[in-house]
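Milestone 3.1: sequence recovery, worked example.
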């Protein structure tokens, strides 16, 4: 009986971070547990980056400090895509609520890149961070400098790849240590086993959300499934969603 009461009190006292996705929070007890690392995965074009942006928008509307780390797009492309939904990222950047960092994929295998990212996260007291995408970071090309440096230390390219995975995992540990609620965008390949290509994401994450779509008759049916979310009761079933003028919205 005492254990049951303690669990109920822990749930009541746990801080929840609203996702900003209309209709989603009611299925996950009000939002993500604060400080958790949640993976959003799906095939290309399923809405993963928009999900990440919308998550940050919710934070900025509540005067939270947000960081968007991108490998696949330039800051201008991010700002332009956000504006399609009426999200003025330029304004929020000027107000100090948002920072967009575009990483050079050719330098991602170099250790100082991760050191600089960790320092950025540690020094700026962010509330929310989005990595877009973890897959691109893990599978970024190994730079000539890293190959030469690795060879001098007797490391083969495969070992450098494993170091890259470890470096990515260490970034998540830094965000967790600082109580930052973090989203990692990952890729899923249709027909291949596993929910993420990189594998780092689904095993390191506190939560796993899958975006999917399929044709039903003449209509495209989009689904979102919360497959895992620690410290949260979930139903695990897919829910229909669509893109609206305000972003992603679950069907009533």
């Amino acid at each position: 009986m005492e254990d049951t009461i303690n669990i109920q009190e822990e749930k009541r006292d746990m801080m929840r971070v609203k996702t900003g996705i209309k209709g989603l929070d009611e299925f996950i007890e009000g939002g993500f547990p604060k400080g958790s690392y949640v993976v959003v995965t799906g095939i290309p074009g399923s809405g993963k980056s928009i999900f990440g942006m919308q998550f940050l928008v919710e934070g900025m509307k509540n005067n939270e400090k947000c960081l968007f780390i991108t490998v696949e797009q330039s800051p201008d492309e991010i700002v332009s895509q956000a504006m399609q939904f009426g999200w003025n990222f330029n304004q929020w950047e000027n107000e100090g609520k948002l920072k967009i960092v575009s990483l050079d994929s050719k330098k991602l295998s170099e250790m100082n890149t991760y050191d600089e990212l960790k320092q950025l996260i540690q020094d700026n007291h962010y509330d929310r961070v989005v990595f877009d995408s973890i897959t691109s970071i893990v599978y970024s090309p190994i730079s000539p400098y890293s190959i030469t440096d690795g060879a001098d230390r007797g490391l083969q390219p495969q070992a450098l790849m494993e170091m890259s995975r470890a470096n990515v995992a260490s970034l998540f540990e830094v965000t967790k240590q600082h109580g930052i609620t973090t989203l990692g965008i990952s890729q899923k390949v249709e027909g291949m086993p596993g929910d993420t290509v990189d594998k780092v994401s689904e095993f390191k994450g506190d939560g796993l959300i899958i975006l999917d779509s399929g044709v039903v008759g003449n209509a495209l049916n989009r689904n979102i499934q919360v497959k895992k979310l620690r410290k949260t009761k979930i139903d695990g079933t897919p829910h229909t969603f669509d893109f609206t003028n305000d972003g992603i919205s679950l069907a009533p």
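The CA atoms of residues 35 and 176 lie 6 Å apart. The chain has a mean pLDDT of 85.
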